[in-house]
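Dear colleagues,

For the upcoming journal club I promised to circulate an example of a predicted protein-ligand complex. I picked one with molybdate ion because it came up in last month's discussion. The inputs are reproduced below in full, followed by the predicted structure.
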Amino acid sequence: MDAMKTVDAHLADILRVVRPLDPVRLDLEDALGSVLAEDVASPVALPPFDNSAMDGYAVRAGDVAGASEDAPVVLPVTVDVAAGDTSHRVVEPGSVTRIMTGAPVPEGADAVVPVEWTDGGTVKVAIRRPPQAGNAIRRSGEDVRAGDVVLTAGTVIGPAQLGILAGVGRRAVLAHPRPRVVVLSTGTELVEPGTPLGHGQIWESNSYTLVAAVRQAGGEAFRRGAVGDDPGAFSATLDALLGEADAVITSGGISMGAYEPVKEALSALGTVRFEKVAMQPGMPQGFGVLGERRVPIFTLPGNPVSAYVSFVLYVKPALARMRGLPAGPPAMVTAICGSALRSPAGRRSFLRGVLTPAAPGGGPAGPTVSPVHGQGSHQLAALAGANALIMVPEDVTELPEGAPVEVIPL
Ligand SMILES: Nc1nc2c(c(=O)[nH]1)N[C@H]1C(S)=C(S)[C@@H](COP(=O)(O)OP(=O)(O)OC[C@H]3O[C@@H](n4cnc5c(N)ncnc54)[C@H](O)[C@@H]3O)O[C@H]1N2
Ligand code: MOO
């Protein structure tokens, strides 16, 4: 048997080719999931002005220092200050203003008395409890000082990051966009779910898995249904899609059969290599680039479990690189085998397993992992019942219950 390529060498080859996408200006509405390509500083302090944290009365604390339940201090209310009030307000000695949450604290006031500590009066108010100086006032700059960098390049933009970007007045940012990934399946036997199944046919599933996996990995995915086993039709479909894609993922049509459209169509180009990688599942792999824009293409094996495992090991790190994020092998945790394992010699295997976290409160045992029943690379249901891949090294053929193993949580 000819020597197979290692898993690590295949990932390294991919990461040598794949580049971060060029940063573009993205409106905030389109920026979710993109990765900042600039440091963002605030032009102003946040909050920009001292403001009230509660609905109540802006007071001079000294004026109401003697207030109590038995002897409330009664003061005139001069004006209402609502959130959004842009006029310059003053609290004169011996008076108060009503004030609402978020409204600017008037000059002279040094505390806010919550309405709950008063009789709620609008002309004059009886205050039953004395506030400390500074009570319920949110100071300018307490969150951000003018000029502070609030987000650095390389940050993934999620909901909270969009909030601070808008909060410092930004409408658009320079960011690595989410990679646009086209997902294409091949195989004459494949029919769309929701349509009747004839003898010899199966419902197409890989594109659903791979599209979802791309989205979870921060990409924008476009699902193309299955194309048949005709290399010409496959090439034509690919050409039509290429202009809009930052990457392409295919599944099926790359092994040793008589009808392998992906391999046939792409081998001729000379920019895509088909290789055997020493792993189980997922031995047949292909990777390369297409067209002048050198769009990366991942030709994954057709067996559904093989396609998904290949995505986790190779495509996901490549998408991280395209997004401008650190890219490398999947993160792993060490777990204890809950039952004995077997694995083929000479291949790194990725058994589908159920990872159970360590019992709360500790104890000596860490997380445990047990393989699911059904380790065939066509066994979709078993994959759906797993939450982890158990990695068994190339030179290990069996592991006893209780042995430590490395596990990739899914
Ligand atoms: N003589 C050999 N035969 C095979 C070898 C080999 O080395 N020598 N390798 C086997 C391994 S390992 C794998 S994995 C598969 C990979 O084959 P292909 O990538 O060419 O995939 P297909 O033959 O097109 O399909 C394999 C299998 O998966 C089903 N499939 C394909 N696409 C989908 C889809 N989108 N949704 C659901 N199921 C799909 C397909 O019906 C086949 O059953 O080759 C082995 N053979
Ligand atoms: O090695 Mo193939 O990818 O499992 O069935």
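Two points we might discuss: The pocket of LQZAQKY5 (ligand 1) is lined by residues 185, 187, 189-190, 202, 204-207, 251-257, 260, 281, 283-284, 301-304, 306, 377-378 (CB under 6 Å). The first helix runs from residue 7 to 17.

See you all on Thursday,
B. R.
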